[in-house]
From TrEMBL, chains A, B:
The keyword Ribosomal protein does not apply. SMART domains: HTH_GNTR (SM00345). This is PLP-dependent aminotransferase family protein. It comes from the Bacteria. InterPro entries: Aminotransferase_I/II_large, HTH_trans_reg/aminotransferase, PyrdxlP-dep_Trfase, PyrdxlP-dep_Trfase_major, PyrdxlP-dep_Trfase_small, Tscrpt_reg_HTH_GntR, WH-like_DNA-bd_sf, WH_DNA-bd_sf. Keywords: Aminotransferase, DNA-binding, Pyridoxal phosphate, Transcription, Transcription regulation, Transferase.
Amino acid sequence: MTQYERLADEFQTLIHNGTLRVGDRLPSVRVTCARRHISPATVFQAYYLLESRGLVQARPRSGYFVAARRPEALAAPEVSSEPPPSQSVAVNDLVVEVLKLSRRAEVLPLGSAFPDPALFPLAKLGRSLGSAMRRLPPHKLVEDLATGHARLRQQVAQRLAADGLAVSADELVVTNGAMEALNLCLQAVTQPGDLVVLESPTFYASLQALERLQLQALALPTHPEHGIDLAALAQALATQPVKACWLMSSFQNPLGALMPEAKKQAIADLLARHQVPLIEDDVYGELYFGPHKPRPIKAFDRAGWVLHCGSFSKSLAPGYRVGWAAAGRWSRAVERAKVMSSLSAAVPSQVAISDYLAQGGHDLHLRRLRQTLQQQRDVALAAIAEHFPAGTQATRPEGGYLLWVALPGDIDTRALLPQALEAGVSLMPGALFSADQRFAHCLRLNYGAVGPDGLRDALARLGRLICDRTGLAPLSR
Amino acid sequence: MTQYERLADEFQTLIHNGTLRVGDRLPSVRVTCARRHISPATVFQAYYLLESRGLVQARPRSGYFVAARRPEALAAPEVSSEPPPSQSVAVNDLVVEVLKLSRRAEVLPLGSAFPDPALFPLAKLGRSLGSAMRRLPPHKLVEDLATGHARLRQQVAQRLAADGLAVSADELVVTNGAMEALNLCLQAVTQPGDLVVLESPTFYASLQALERLQLQALALPTHPEHGIDLAALAQALATQPVKACWLMSSFQNPLGALMPEAKKQAIADLLARHQVPLIEDDVYGELYFGPHKPRPIKAFDRAGWVLHCGSFSKSLAPGYRVGWAAAGRWSRAVERAKVMSSLSAAVPSQVAISDYLAQGGHDLHLRRLRQTLQQQRDVALAAIAEHFPAGTQATRPEGGYLLWVALPGDIDTRALLPQALEAGVSLMPGALFSADQRFAHCLRLNYGAVGPDGLRDALARLGRLICDRTGLAPLSR
């Protein structure tokens, strides 16, 4: 054990035994250096480690403070030496039903897939909508239909380039949100019956897409913090006829997992070696809480096996339905499939976003959005720790607005949903996130869909319900 | 032969032998009554008959005038007693290529699928876009996503009700244009390998949709003025395992054919008897030149076998990508497929159209649009008659903005396309409108994409090219 780890452990003991309590300030780095006769670097490392354990929180120019209690970290799943048998996907109509139920205005939408639209610069976007459409020459309404608005494609390419992705405007196909991009990419690289690697748990839309295209799913164990199990992926690629992968490398839905860069690099290498295309769903990449934007796997892809999909729906313009695919060698196939299936994304939405981006200020908006979401994550985790039963586990995502909760005891969160809606809260049942419904005791919660007060209120109601159902006392008792 | 037919034939002779020339006024009804000692009703009937033959044109409050010469009417196709063998569809990438090439701003876009956007109330729509989005509560951006904006669905249902379609707002699913609606409906009623009846020639998008879903096409003979051959359809339904039909009953793309109401009724009855669903593409229904809006087959469908698809792209808001499916018992299946494939149509587009419709004035816009398109049809037919080679046949659509031309001699219009683009005109080659490319000597022309002067100019250039290629002299020589 290094010196800084020892120091961190000491503080951890003080926190756990109540000597240091929530909100207490840790001694300053200067003071600790002087008392312990150690270097500032060692103290900083110890404090960083405590921060990464979720025990303390840095406040700019104020120091380190004991963080609000958080539920137990979600244990890593068992990584089976045999991946689960591949299966034909059959996803329940429940997804559509849950989405519909959760849309009721009076319900606190923790089951939603979107953040609160009030977090977005809608007024500014609306002005761009009006003025850009007034200036648009009428023939432009039908000219760029197939591939998308030319200037917008350039702007997206420039933003991707800033993230280290060498994608040309010509490679980009603008789509009706990322959902369509993902579907078109999957269609471009598969034939019915093909085997496709997914994460487990995975975003239900990927299960639906496989069902629609009559593909087989091979769902691999996925670590709640670091993403898909690399050994399992390597084994699957080596031993099974995998025709494609569909992964979220940054702030995975539903876990919120972020793959370390080394894993992203390793996956890019594996794909190239086995010549297997990856559909990379990167819709949450902009919503990072760390100091730097995490790079997608596409940034490590020298051999051109990654089809990268993104959108503006989660970070700027929900409901505008503007996404894109950067599909490399499959670009023309994706473009063709797009023309066949829906012709084009809406022109007004595209020109509005393009005009908005050209005005500047988008990155300022993103900084504020990230800060808000990070604060709300902490509010949510504190509320779960207070109101959910002992034994509850939760992830602590480093970005996005979705977290994953595993409940103790024998509970099926599908059965919980009607009661939760009755109590004015929606949630997304865990069973929707795998083809074999193995996550029935889990749920996905959106901490970006309502503000801090609503979040506390909603999680208190939900916690009471769960305690009632399980007969367990809340963690905080 | 009745008295009025005799009178009409007399005038026809005078027109054909040059006694009456293009633009000459026919004697007034009063004068003709007095000279011939016949009733005004008889004279009117004769003049109506001449009008329906395309020989004279009524000008409001001015009388009847000899119409511009028109090319020969397209002969009805041979109705084979055996329908052609069904086939797996493989449509050429040419469609995407042609669409791309034809999008160049300097080209007169007779190959386009859209009318000139300048014919639409874009300024008014743009104002609706800005103001409706300003008034929209933010949560609405994510609330109505799956099924579409609730008020717009109500407005569409009301418009359909006025046309005799009993469709509830709840049955309607708003889509990314009619293209997506058609694809989703086809998907809802078929499995890979199924046999689907199409028209021959048919809109290339239907061929692409079948290819995408791995369906078999049974293309039935289609009359250039009255649509699909009823006997062939009856025989196919009786003898083959037809799982669905995809038809355009009003102003068919590419022919411009309009089925008589009796045929629509008969088709509705046939479908009910054989329990076969029909996907009805009705995107041109609003663009009728006759006194009444033609009713779609869905209006005759008592047993619920018709999935009706429409959009605002051809009559109001190109590029906004707002269409709908009224899919009856398949509504929820279509909605589910929509959520899976692209989630939703763009909200700004939907609220803008809804706001525009609520203001009134849409029907006035449609009346003007129809009048313009009808005039441009006549300009196009006169220009074809003047510049295209003798032996050219063309349809004379009673609505929409697409007409179908069959060229004489041994010409493949795909080979003509690059030269036409060189000469600054696009066209849609006939080969794209069937799976077996049997219409290689035909082309589809859009008479709504440029104004009368551009239309004359474009068709003169095209006529010269074709005469050069075929070595035939123009009709007018």
